[in-house]
Amino acid sequence: MQDLGISILFKGINFQRLMGGLWVTLRLALITIGLSCLFGLLFGMLMLSKRKIAKVFCRMWLEIVRFMPQLVLLYIVYFGFARLFGWDLDGETSAVIVFTFWGTAEMGDLIRGALTSIPLHQTESAAALGLTKGQVYLYVLIPQTLRRLLPQAINLSTRIIKTTALVKMINVTEVLKVGQQIIGQFYRQPDAAFWVYFVIFLLYFLVCWPFSLLAKQLEKRWA
Amino acid sequence: MADTILRVNDIHKSFDGTGVLRGVSLEIREGEVVVIVGPSGCGKSTLLRCINGLEAIDKGEIWLRNEKISGRTKDLHLVRQKIGMVFQSYDLFPHMKVMDNLLLGPTKALGKPKQEVEQEAMQMLERVGLKEKAHVYPRTLSGGQKQRVALVRAMLMHPEIMLLDEITAALDPEMVSEVLNVVIDLARGGMTMAIVTHEMRFAEAVADRVLFLEEGVVLEEGTPEKFFHAPTTERARRFLQSFTYASKRDKAEVQPKNNFGD
């Protein structure tokens, strides 16, 4: 009897290899998300700056990121920078640069939105209670900003996780690339492709779904 | 005679070169309720905002008992702990339940023990008819209920004086009286208050003294009886008239005749 395609996943260390690839995906995503939050906070504050030049700069950055396919950006940094500046960036570094460039702008825009959505009255009525400036931020402004920000920030994070699949195009061996290698080895097994991709689909789902649930839950609780 | 709680001495305030307060003076004694009325844009709200330091004044002095509170940039929060203020838009903190809204000031700003404040908060909620709302979020309350909670929140700080800035202006008409009755209750309890309002009948009922503000100066000042029934300035008379309407039945001669000729 011929083996079912799915059994190839359990041959040798194939499953471990897939998990290794998944870890590359996650590591890349987590570093990107962390950096995007950090720089996004600065970006968001810069967007709220009274200086016109800062606003125009941020606006342009955001538009570039939104109109330019991530893949093109990856190629520019990975291949283009090597030629242009002689930087020999490895794939993962290039990916972190590109995704952080994107994530910073998107996260910054979300942070800007959350900060401006808190009415001035909230600050004033908290101050009128005799709270210090620090207490006003700690108990009134920051909790409200986070409540507005978190669900959207989580949605952005799942988008970042999914988008990391593109890095296989610049020779980073993440979960999708590992899958393709396994399929290549078992080319005589006609349904291998289906099962490997199906499992990868499940893996992505298992990683992103809890985030999505959390975002939905928070949104409902804080509506 | 009761002590003077608040003394406002010839204060000036302008925004972008436009004088909003142009020399306003005012004294409020302990337990006194002063109502400030006037057309919109006359500076009433600005006056209240200057008193608790939300706006810095350009000239003049403000004293709370024996302490000069104007012109300082440091420790403004210590001044505000003694001055309660309630705004038009209630401004409860939406991420906190009613009880946590009430506890925040007394526990964090004054450092009082939580249990003690909680007990007092519960009593005051009961007094304003909202005991059963202690553990809900503000979004489930009506405007009138929110404003009553905001009053309790300010009162729990045991301020020397309360400033009420058009607290019923954003409410549906049927909710106005439930809020104003709480204010009258506070006034009866001896609370010192400065109230800005457009509710003239309420003003007459609650005020010990009425101030008529126009273009940044106090144009007229007096007891409610005198101000509302025998204002001395032409401007105040016209202002009060704007709250009444001429009845259409007073003008019988211009009534259209109907088709049957009678």
List the main descriptive attributes of the protein structure presented here:
heterodimer; A: 223 residues; mainly alpha; MetI-like fold; 8 helices; flat; B: 262 residues; alpha/beta; Rossmann fold; six-stranded mixed β-sheet; four-stranded antiparallel β-sheet; 9 helices; 10 strands
Number of strands of chain B: 10
CATH class category of chain A: Mainly Alpha
Q: Please state the average pLDDT score of chain A.
A: 88
Total strand segments of chain A:
0
Oligomeric assembly: heterodimer
Radius of gyration of chain B: 21 Å
SSE string of chain A, helices as H and strands as E = HHHHHHHH
Remind me, CATH topology of chain A? MetI-like fold
List segments of chain B where confidence is low: pLDDT < 50 over at least 5 consecutive residues.
Answer: none
CATH topology of chain B: Rossmann fold
Distance between the termini of chain B: 65 Å
Instruction: Return the structural class of chain A.
Output: mainly alpha
Strand percentage of chain B lies at: 15-25%
Question: At CATH's second level, what is the architecture of chain A?
Answer: Orthogonal Bundle
CATH superfamily of chain B: P-loop containing nucleotide triphosphate hydrolases
- What share of the residues of chain A does DSSP label as strand, in percent? under 5%
Shape of chain B: globular
Distance between the ends of chain A: 56 Å
Largest interface, with counts of residues having CB < 8 Å to the other chain, equals: A-B, 20 and 27 residues
Structural class of chain B: alpha/beta
Describe this protein's structure.
The complex is a heterodimer of chains A (223) and B (262). Chain A has 223 residues and is mainly α. Chain A is built from eight helices and no strands. In chain A, α1 packs across α4, α2 crosses α4 and α7 packs antiparallel against α8. The longest helix of chain A is centred in the N-terminal third of the chain and has 34 residues. Chain A is flat. Chain B is of the alpha/beta class. Chain B has a single domain, classed as 3-Layer(aba) Sandwich (Rossmann fold). Helices cover 34% and strands 24% of the residues of chain B. Chain B contains nine helices and ten strands. In chain B, the strands form two sheets. Chain B has a six-stranded mixed β-sheet with strand order 6-7-8-3-9-10, with helices on both faces. A four-stranded antiparallel β-sheet of chain B has the order 2-1-4-5, with helices on one face. The mean pLDDT of chain B is 91.
